[in-house]
Amino acid sequence: MVESKWTRLFIITSIVQTFITIIIQSLVVGRNQSASSFFLDKWQEQYGGLHNNTSTILECKTNIVTRMYNIVGENIIILLSNVFLLFFCYDAIFNQNTIQIITVVIVNYAIGIVAAIQIVEVYRWKAQAVECVSAFSVFNFRVQFYEVPSIVILLLCATMMGFFTWKLYQQFGWNIYKRIGADRNMQKIFRSMLIFVMHLKLDLFFMVVLSVVACVVLSQNDKLKSTPLYWFHVIVTVLIFILQGLAYHMLREESHLGMKIFIGLWLIPIADFIALLIKSIGTSAQDSWYFFIIFIVFGIIMALLTIIWSIIVLNNFDKGLKRHLTTGIGNIQRPPITEQTSQTQPPGRWAIDDEDDQTYP
């Protein structure tokens, strides 16, 4: 990894953001769990003495508790997203992937927007809870001490990293020029491969998280748990891991047949997510989990983009990029191996060949 003032600032900012966000989101999770417990206590006080609770009262209780569990799930997803972004940030710097660095900034802003939407969801949940149990109105979520600081930190760090990105773009762009050469077509091919690999990394996190969340949601519904959709989704969740390994291997080998197989099989997760989306939209507006629906739509878009870039990469096979790269996937843009670093660099990485680099001016 090439160290500079901007790489250090970029990584330090990401570490600080992750550390603070984990603390705040952990507090938010605790607060929301306390709110759920407080609601159940007040519900018990108001309706516990009644021997004949109507179905409406019981349904109200179930819906409110389920929705709060969903909100807690969102908090955990935001927390895990920040942990993933820390890895994603370091990986981008380590591989000098400018496209990935720009994506880090965009995802940071997106998480900040999602955190802001959660404030609306929390107040919406409270309004529904008060309709069910009037005594719950005294509970104070104090979003100004929880969600608001988290949003400010996310947006502030995203803005700072956006400035650092411009500096890193200039630095890494020069490094790519030195290793790939002045051939613009080769640089374009190289950049396409970087974007495809970046999509695979994003897919590995967001699509797996989506798949696991969907499994949890489906398993909570006894009717859905016994349907073919549930077991099909479980199989697809495992398949995503297999397809990730297949894509990396076929990319390294520039295998036309292997990449075509990947593209064909990748349609299966897309079909699964579309089925989940239809099932989610089919519920009533009151019972809909909008965060989950948005997450599914995002997963479908990412999966489609992965197919598009896999086709682009497939068309670039056998056009000369492979001779610039050594075997492995990890460090696509890593600087040439020198005598000093050759003993410490792990094998099986993608790196620009120092020997090939000398053929360019």
From TrEMBL:
It comes from the Eukaryota. It comes from Gigaspora margarita. Residues 332-361 are annotated as: Disordered. InterPro entries: UPF0658_Golgi. The chain crosses the membrane at residues 9-28, 76-94, 101-120, 148-169, 194-219, 231-251, 263-282, 288-314. Keywords: Membrane, Transmembrane, Transmembrane helix. The keyword Membrane applies. One of its GO terms (cellular component) is Golgi apparatus. This is Uncharacterized protein.
